[in-house]
Design goal:
heterodimer; A: Elongation Factor Tu (Ef-tu), domain 3; Alpha-Beta Plaits; 6-stranded mixed β-sheet; B: 9-stranded mixed β-sheet; metal ion binding (chain B); coproporphyrinogen oxidase activity (chain B); iron-sulfur (chain B); metal-binding (chain B); Elp3/MiaA/NifB-like_rSAM (chain B)
Chain lengths: 617, 407
């Protein structure tokens, strides 16, 4: 076993041969953060006293959900056979929504630790990321974690991993991030197995941005991997995609606290601070060079993050609209993939149409808005981007059902994704049923080890964004894991279903659905609203319609009694207060034509709470 | 008196009223409500301020009349100190609880105290509530001799199954007996009914109405059952043992009551009250709806004098302690500003058959009246003559009408 390195190598003067750049590929709760904590402790970069659980995950949500949203890089010293090395651990985001960011993190490494929970085995997202790592020619070190758990079955899952990677189950290292068992051995393996970086030290500087984080004290902190050449402090740098030139205010490495250095040499990993205030000026995947001696060619693989999933976000209290705008503006500083524009809705008032990379991204952003900014929000059902061609051959891009053109439609195309579902083999039938009901086409099915199966489908993205994952989880007792990646577009027979209250369209409930499912959607929503909207003084018809054609209908009968029989022995105060309360309640009502609808009814209808409530009764 | 006391300012310990209460007092009638907070058993639907002997925690039923008289003496002092003119009570109402659980002599002592300290006007209406099984002819005779003019029997229903659900202990056969006794004593008779009890059918309700009408009472009250939180009834409904009363059925029952009572010659004068002729309307009841002054004596009783509302501590033991120390039993009070007074006036006067004068309303509310007429909630002819009077449909939706009027 290696001891801690007594003196760390200095950044900017570390030969590439002494550098190892690696990342950890793992599923959400397979213990990546705990293992990273242990490495920080064992290499001595974080004192035992300062050790905070999951040191690298800084945001509360990350800590609570046990997932990493923003990757970071930590430089750790390690001694092996008397020689000192600098190990750069790049902490990749773990979820499919961030595939692009994952691929950039991987491109910054020469090797990856494939970390798998010894009690659960590999999951679909890990498989997807492993695939990406192999595409990037990374050296893979397979590791089973949590071997201290009573439920651990390392032999079984070592076999599974060996089956995937080739080689022997004995090559799979067994560790416990919790107890630290096997972690020193793992660090040794990183030195021995992962190749040192190669690159031209004398070429013009090319550094790849693999992460960009907004910090309210320091502005944007950009994490880079030097591919060629070097950068030194007080140099002017240039972003190759925009040609924008920035003064370099600070350069250094994370250890894991920021540590200023003279510069970064070829193969090294570190951070840059330029004083820009918006991560959009420092985009993941972009190449940084110097303005004095710029490189001629950018590093390959840069793309702009493109939103895939859209949802309307509205404050429950309309007065919070300016706060929501401010909060989104702030989040945007640290999230280059977030974009939004103002939107109004009859039912929900003023809000924003927000584009997300995927469902988790949506969930994380709404949660951060609610938690960090104290907002109460309602999100409309997620939707995707449709290309609608009208009969006069004009193409309209629709990210919101309200943009769906009226009149005759020539064709509608929708995004499709390739979906991978990993689950125990007993659930194959039920998963197939679900995927087929969501217009999925089976591409293939493979056994992973003896009892687990990977099912691959192509499916319309629109079928996944709504509640597919919830259904998948509940039908498989939570055992199934899901991964998806974009796979182009397809034409489909899609229609817009509108919901009308007393003849007035309620925009928040319009949906673009497959023609065959239009009726089911109409029945579902009209019934939900019937159960949620309080009776009015008149009968209220609720209809679902495609264009002018009504496909489903319900009605709320008129209210006949709204009077308190008595005033209790002269307690007028009580009666008046009750009236004042009702009056306050009326203020929170949204008017759809003449119909008063409590905001809660809209919210419940959007979230689908009604069915569950009915079951409880 | 039901439920928790309202949140408001604490009442001053001496109970003194601001001088403002005297403004316009000559034009306002004065009455006395006297609460008797005792029952033999607590009915399952009731959340009124009443106590069975096991719930009294040391307060004594036997001492109650003396304590109430203590508050009556205080009342005379406080009203005088506020500069109010001497206004003999035009109405007195003994409610509960079960006032008739006390000996008749106790009720008489309390009434005498009201006469002595506050005064009682000639021709005053003096009512007591009574349980059909807690009075007899002799009892009623004694009340009549002391000056009582009216008795209101808690009949509730003529159907034994419905009475059982309500936990009412009386035998429906007692009703004709006590009504005859009251008549013999020269008392006006009112019968109180409840509709919409879980399990009660429209036929049950018709039976109760017809039985009540057959007794030819001077006055009938019919209250929709309200399931109050914290009652045994609410628990039984929550547990699924009983079905919650349906608003639609209660609406049908109200319409049936209005139809049968109307056919028998009774007219409504307040949403839940009908009288055989205008002279039999309960003037005390009306005083609540018309902004009159009244002093409420007893635990949990509410009072209103000249724009100040207050209410007493609820528990008889706390009440007894305060009154015997010569302190005011008032617990909280609120002083109404002009805006609140107008809201109350709209809220209260729209419920009565004489209606609300349209000219008290602001411009927006006056605009809203047209919509109320169009929706069949307000009588259009009366509106043209300057008054808001509810239609039958409007009575059932009275709270909605009020919300539209106060915007």
């Amino acid at each position: 076993m290696s001891p801690r390195a007594t003196t760390a190598l200095q950044p900017a003067s570390t030969p590439p041969a002494s550098i190892r750049n690696f990342c950890i590929i793992a599923h959400i709760d397979h213990g990546k953060s705990t293992l990273a904590d242990r490495m920080l402790q064992i290499t001595g970069v974080v004192s035992d006293r300062d050790m905070r659980a999951q040191y690298l995950d800084r945001m509360d949500i990350e800590r609570e959900r046990g997932i990493t949203i923003k990757s970071q890089a930590v430089r750790m010293p390690w001694e092996r056979n008397g020689e000192t090395f600098a190990l750069n651990m790049i902490d990749t985001p773990g979820h499919v929504d961030f595939t692009y960011e994952v691929s950039r993190s991987l491109a910054a490494c020469e090797g990856a630790i494939l970390l798998v929970d010894a009690a659960q085995g590999i999951e679909a997202q890990t498989l997807a990321n492993l695939y990406l790592a192999l595409e990037n020619d990374l050296e893979i070190i397979p590791v089973l974690n949590k071997i201290d758990l009573p439920a651990a079955d390392p032999d079984k899952y070592a076999g599974e991993i060996a089956g995937l990677l080739g080689g022997s189950p004995d090559d799979v290292l067994r560790v416990s991030g919790k107890t630290g068992m096997g972690v020193e051995e793992l660090l040794d393996l990183v030195v021995d197995r992962i190749p040192s970086p190669t690159g031209d030290a004398n070429a013009p500087a090319r550094a790849m941005i693999f992460d960009s984080v907004y910090d309210s004290y320091r502005g944007v902190v950009t994490y880079v991997r030097m591919i060629d050449g070097s950068l030194s402090s007080r140099e002017r740098i240039q972003m190759m995609s925009t040609r924008a030139v920035h003064e370099l205010l600070e350069i250094g490495v994370s250890s894991p606290e920021p540590l200023r250095s003279k510069g970064l040499g070829v193969g090294e990993v570190g951070y840059l601070i330029t004083g820009v205030k918006d991560v959009r000026q420092s985009k993941v995947g972009d190449t940084v060079t110097t303005s004095v001696k710029p490189a001629t060619e950018a590093l390959p693989g840069y793309t702009d993050p493109k939103p895939m999933v859209f949802s309307g976000l509205y404050p429950i209290d309309g007065a919070e609209y300016p706060d929501l705008r401010e909060a989104l503006d702030k989040l945007k500083l640290s999230d280059a993939a977030l974009n939004y524009e103002p939107e109004t809705s009859v039912a929900l008032g003023f809000g924003f149409r927000v584009g997300f990379l995927g469902l988790l991204h949506l969930e994380i952003i709404t949660e951060r808005l609610e938690r960090e900014f104290g907002l109460d929000l309602i999100a409309t059902a997620p939707s995707v981007t449709y290309e609608v061609m009208t009969e006069d051959k004009k193409t309209v891009t629709v990210t919101n059902p309200s943009e769906f053109p009226g009149g005759k439609i020539h064709a509608v195309s929708e995004p499709v994704v390739k979906v991978g579902v990993l689950a125990p083999k007993d659930y194959v039938g039920t998963i197939m049923e679900l995927c087929q009901s969501r217009r999925g086409t089976l591409l293939g099915m493979e056994y992973l080890g003896e009892d687990r199966v990977e099912l691959r489908y192509t499916m319309p993205l629109g079928e996944i964004v709504f509640d597919f994952f919830d259904h998948l989880k509940s039908r498989t007792q939570g055992y199934a894991s899901l991964d998806y990646e974009p796979a182009g577009e397809q034409e489909a027979d899609l229609v817009k279903v509108d919901i009308l209250l007393q003849g007035e369209q309620v925009d928040a409930f319009s949906a673009i659905v497959h023609r065959e499912k239009a009726y089911a959607y109409g029945v579902l929503m009209t019934e939900r609203l019937k159960n949620l909207i309080p009776r009015q003084q008149f009968e209220v018809p609720i209809q679902a319609a495609i264009g002018a054609r009504i496909i489903a209908r319900e009605s709320i009968r008129a209210m006949r009694k709204d009077v308190l029989a008595k005033c209790y022995g002269g307690d007028i105060t009580r009666k008046r207060k009750l009236l004042e309360k009702q009056k306050e309640g009326k203020k929170r009502m949204k008017m759809v034509g003449k119909v008063e609808v409590p905001q809660e009814a809209f919210i419940a209808a959007l979230s689908g709470d009604t069915e569950t409530k009915k079951e409880k009764k | 008196m039901a439920g928790p006391l309202p949140l408001a300012d604490p009442a001053p310990r001496d109970g003194l009223l601001p001088d403002s209460v005297a403004i316009g007092a000559d034009a306002r009638a004065f009455g006395v409500y006297l609460h008797v907070p005792f029952c033999l058993v607590r009915c399952g639907y009731c959340d009124f301020n009443t106590y069975t002997s096991t719930e009294l925690r040391g307060a004594s039923q036997a001492d109650y009349a003396t304590q109430a008289i203590g508050e009556i003496v205080q009342a005379a002092r406080v009203l005088e100190a506020a500069g109010l003119p001497q206004r003999p009570a035009r109405t007195v109402f003994f409610g509960g609880g079960t006032p008739t659980l006390l000996p008749a002599s106790d009720l008489v002592r309390m009434l005498d105290a009201i006469r002595t300290y506050l005064g009682i006007a000639d021709g005053a209406e003096i009512t007591t509530e009574a349980n059909p099984d807690s009075v007899d002819e002799e009892y009623l005779q004694e009340l009549a001799r002391a000056g009582f003019t009216r008795v209101s029997f808690g009949m509730q229903s003529a159907v034994p199954g419905v009475l059982a659900t309500l936990d009412r202990t009386h035998d429906p056969a007692r009703i004709p007996v006590v009504v005859r006794a009251a008549r013999a004593a020269g008392l006006q008779v009112s019968l109180d009914l409840i509709y919409g009890t879980p399990g009660e059918t429209i036929h049950d309700w018709r039976t109760s109405l017809e039985t009540a009408i057959a007794e030819r009472p001077d006055h009938v009250s019919a209250y929709a059952l309200i399931v109050e939180q914290g009652t045994k009834l609410a628990r039984r409904i929550r547990s699924g043992e009983l079905a919650a009363p349906s608003d639609d059925l209660q609406a049908d029952m109200y319409e049936l009551a209005d139809e049968l009572l109307g056919a028998a010659g009774y007219s409504w004068y307040e949403v839940s009250n009908w009288a055989a002729s205008p002279s039999f309307r309960s003037r005390h009841n009306l005083s609540y709806w018309t902004g009159a002054d009244w002093w409420g004596v007893g635990p949990g009783a509410h009072s209103h004098v000249g724009g100040v509302r207050w209410w007493n501590v609820k528990h008889p033991a706390a009440y007894a302690g305060l009154v015997s120390d010569g302190a005011s039993p008032a617990h909280g009070r609120e002083t109404l500003d002009d805006g609140t007074r107008l809201v109350e006036r709209i809220l209260l006067e729209t419920r009565i058959a004489d209606g609300l004068a349209i000219d008290v309303l602001g411009a927006d509310a006056r605009q809203a009246v047209a919509g109320l007429i169009a929706d069949g909630l307000v009588n259009g002819e009366a509106a043209l003559h300057g008054r808001i009077i509810l239609t039958l449909r409007g009575r059932l939706l009275a709270d909605a009408v009020v919300r539209r009027l106060i915007g």
